[in-house]
Predict the structure.
Amino acid sequence: MKEYFKKLFLGICISYTAVSITAAVINAITGMENDNSNTLVMFTFCVIASVVLSLYTLFDNVSPLAMMIIQYVAACFFCGLFLLIISRWDPISPRGWFEYYRSFTIPYIIIAGVFYYYLSKEVKEQNRLIHEIQENK
């Protein structure tokens, strides 16, 4: 369990750093300002995405494509729930909802792509080791 939380924390840190740096570059290029509430929302989205992606073992019995779609829908659901909660204090316009989901989807696809790439490399390495052990017996 300790190893799981270490990997989850590392994933959150890496994804948040990547999203923050990308947002800072985009804001510098476009001349837009960023406030602290957007930064906190980005951090919460990174936490939600990292937690949902880390639960991939729950989907061992489904195809990888179905797993990716289910995880994306689950992440969108939890982000929407979070936005619904914070909209009690700071109302979100219909266009704002669209912008939030667009702002979530693009980094999520990139982060998920990197995650699944490394996951597939790990699986291939484990399969190679299993095959090697079987040949040595």
In short: The CA atoms of residues 68 and 112 lie 8 Å apart.
